Amino acid sequence: MTLETVGFWVVATVLLASSLAVVLTPNLFHAVLYLAAALVATGVVFLLLEQPFLFAVQLLLYAGGVVTIVVFAIMLTERLVGERIAQTSRHVVNGAIVAAAVFVGIMGFLIGAPLGAPRPAETGDTTAAIGRALVGPFAVTLELLGVLLVVALLGALHFARSEE
Amino acid sequence: MAPSVWLPLLVLGLPFVAFVLLAVVAPLRRVGPRAGLVSIGAIALAFGAAVTVWTEGFVSETTWAWIPADGGPIATVGLLVDPLSNAMLVLVTLVSLLVQIYSLAYLGDERPASLGRYYTYQSLFAFSMLGLVLAPGFLQMFVFWELVGLCSYLLIGYWYERPAAARAAVKAFWITKLGDVGFIIGIVLLWSATGTFEFTDLFEKAQEHALAIPGLPTIMFLIYLGAVGKSAQFPLHVWLPDAMEGPTPVSALIHAATMVTAGVFMVTRTEPLFALVPEVLTLIAWVGAFTALLAATMACVETDIKRVLAYSTISQLGYMMAAAGAGAAFAGFLHLLTHGLFKALLFLAAGAVIHAVGTNDIFRMGGLFRAMPQTGIVFVVGTLALAGVPPLAGFYSKEAVLGGVWEAHLTGPFLMLALTVLLTAFYMFRVVFIAFFGRAHAAADPHEAPWLMRGPLWVLAALTVLVGVRMALGGAEGHEETPAWLAPLSVGLALVGFALAWAMYQRRAIDPARIAAALAPIDYLARRRYGLDALYAGLYRGFILGFSRLVGWIDRYLVDGVLNVLTALTLRGGDALRRIQSGRAQDYVYGVAFGLLLLIVGAQLWR
Amino acid sequence: MIGLPAYLVLGALVFSIGLFGVLTRRNAVGILLGIELMLNAVNINLVAFARFNGDVAGLVFTLFTISITVAEVAVGLAIVIAIFRVRRTVEADRLDLLRG
């Protein structure tokens, strides 16, 4: 058992556990914290796949940005409503069946798929490759993404602004 | 274009222009009497043109392609101008003109818009009748034939607020349509056998003996059926008495002088074709004579002055048809023309009487001769003409009819017609004695009609006399000699009828009730119109209404039922389906998830 | 040595858990969290495929996904707050104006 194998199982366990906690915990605030854990675990998965740059992005944007925003949002709504927002679930059995069915469906594909190829050796600096791809073939996409982010920012501002 | 073409076209076109003008320009129609002046002006001009056409003796045939096809048009429209149509043109325009002038006074109390409507119909009728007269082929004739039927319907139902008038209009329409169905089937069969609607083509073929079609008797019988309906022959005569619900001038024009004679005109026009089928001709003669007799007996017991005249019209139409059936179409046509004059006269005079007295019942009139002598004189002139007293117009034409029937060795019809001569004189003088002589009723204060109504009466009376005198001087022109004993016989019969009426209703030497008792079965039947009306009513109720109810039931429960079930299903289905739209985002996510599952399963299956 | 299928199964599991959250959470914020999980699962898949096929495009796509997710969360939360102001609730069950 190599270090990587052990790491994968540990990270996988943490990821699945925190994901389940996100969808099952009755406390919304806790759910956000578990989500942060899950996101970090995902980042570690990226690291296991030898993508440190994506790990950094994941930490900064997701675990840092998204979780912060969500926490702020929860704080805001709780302040507005003046009470703790309980987090309950509905139709748990139905949701479980459907989710399980989707999982089984995906597994069906995985079983039949030819995925046995071994992992090729890491070649060169992927970060540099990503950077070249972003300004090369994906330059237009990158620009569009910038526009999208600006629009999202303005939209969020518009929705969240207080009544004057 | 030669005058022999454009003058008849003018005659035809003027009433049409008046009709379109009145029909389209609503403000003009609503002013009433002035709208009438438009119509009268048009028909007066048309009358002038018609007289010119007649005196010049134009003969022409002009046709335009109507339904084009390879190898010549299938159907044409056009004008067939010959002595027959010329005489009809004059009669139609003359009576139309006089009736329209008369109506100005007779219907003077009507609302202006209503009067405008009346004159619109009148113009349309004049156009339709003239188009029928000038038709060069069966198809155009049928179109105008239906148009005059429509006008008849509209004008009978002129007072459509009255249920009786509305019913009578529908009845007239239905019953004439019965005959028209036969007519159109006959026309189409004839066309499919010969390939033409044109009279001249058909006549040429008839002369070349090229019309030996199997089933020609059937075809001609079907065509004759149209005439049975239109000219009120037994057994389709029942609509004509009811048609008297229309205004009296309408009765004079349409139901005495012109439209009802369309059947006779058609038979006369296509006489060369009917000549090929002697069995149908014999039938026509028998039916005509029987109609004449039957209607005369009913006229004897009728108390409504207009209905007496209506039965008299049916009876005289029977004469015309009998003449046509006997091969003496010319005599029948002659009777058509003279009858058109004096029957219009009688109707208009009766209208003047009704206008003055306010009732149709002859037993509530009486002594009118003193109150309205002018009307009385013209009515008596018309009565004498109808009874066939020389030297008035009716005598000569009736003489010709009787002679023609005798010459054709149709003894049965001849005897019936001869008996009808007696009855005609009897029932007409019965009306004269009861209404114009006899004791005056104290309640009524009758007065002479205005000159607008008297004028047409005098014109018609003068024409009745003048035509008769002209015939007396000119002798029986152009048709075969009648047996010498015929004239004394018919005059004698008429005198017997006159004497009977005089004795029963003037001198009261004979009690009418005793005569009625002596002839009890006939009296009973005639008063009930031989049960024909009841029979038709029963048939109508039993069959048509039953059928309508069946159709109504099918419509309500089967057709509508299917629709109702469908709509209910749709509603229920929609109601059930709208529950899917819960509005909750997560339920839609379920939908997405199911869709994803479907995709997965499908992809697995079809891999 | 961990092969590609292990990563893919991990991704599928996280995806299903996220779907379960989206389907069952009453709170709109909770639903958003479920969506985040699902997107994460996608990211895992993308990176794993890119890594095992030696294709840099998958990595770039992951980058895009992360950025778009951030935008989506920002707008989504703004909407939640706006709804909350108007309706005084963020329970998705009560937000059924579109009910047929």
Could you please describe the fold and organization of this structure?
The complex is a heterotrimer of chains A (164), B (607) and C (100). Helices cover 77% and strands 0% of the residues of chain A. Chain A is mainly alpha-helical. Chain A has two domains: 1-111, Up-down Bundle (Four Helix Bundle (Hemerythrin (Met), subunit A)); 125-164. In chain A, α1 (3-24) packs antiparallel against α2. The radius of gyration of chain A is 20 Å and the shape is globular. Chain B is 76% helix and 2% strand. Chain B contains 26 helices and two strands. Chain B has a two-stranded antiparallel sheet. Chain C has a single domain, classed as Helix Hairpins (Orthogonal Bundle). Helices cover 79% and strands 0% of the residues of chain C. The longest helix of chain C has 32 residues, at 56-87. Chains A and C meet through α1, α2, α3, α4 and α5 of A and α1, α2 and α3 of C.
The main sheet of chain B comes to: 2 strands, antiparallel
CATH topological fold name of the largest domain in chain A: Four Helix Bundle (Hemerythrin (Met), subunit A)
Please, what is the oligomeric state?
heterotrimer
Sheet with the most strands: spatial strand order of chain B: 1-2
User: End-to-end distance of chain B, in Å?
Assistant: 86 Å
Overall average pLDDT of chain B: 84
CATH architecture classification of the largest domain in chain A: Up-down Bundle
Largest sheet of chain A: none
The succession of helices and strands of chain B, N to C, reads HHHEEHHHHHHHHHHHHHHHHHHHHHHH
Strand content of chain A: under 5%
Determine Rg of chain A (CA atoms, Å): 20 Å
Can you give the helix content of chain A as a percent range?
over 70%
Total E-strand runs of chain B: 2
Structurally, the number of domains of chain A stands at 2
Secondary structure blueprint with pairings:
The complex is a heterotrimer of chains A (164), B (607) and C (100).
Chain A: H1 3-24, H2 28-48, H3 52-81, H4 92-112, H5 126-135, H6 139-160
Helix pairs in contact in A: 1-2, 2-3
Chain B: H1 3-24, H2 26-30, H3 33-56, E1 60-67, E2 75-81, H4 83-106, H5 112-134, H6 138-156, H7 163-194, H8 199-207, H9 216-230, H10 239-242, H11 248-257, H12 262-269, H13 271-274, H14 278-301, H15 305-325, H16 329-357, H17 368-371, H18 373-387, H19 393-407, H20 411-436, H21 451-474, H22 486-506, H23 512-518, H24 520-527, H25 532-578, H26 585-605
Antiparallel strand pairs in B: 1-2
Chain C: H1 4-24, H2 28-53, H3 56-87
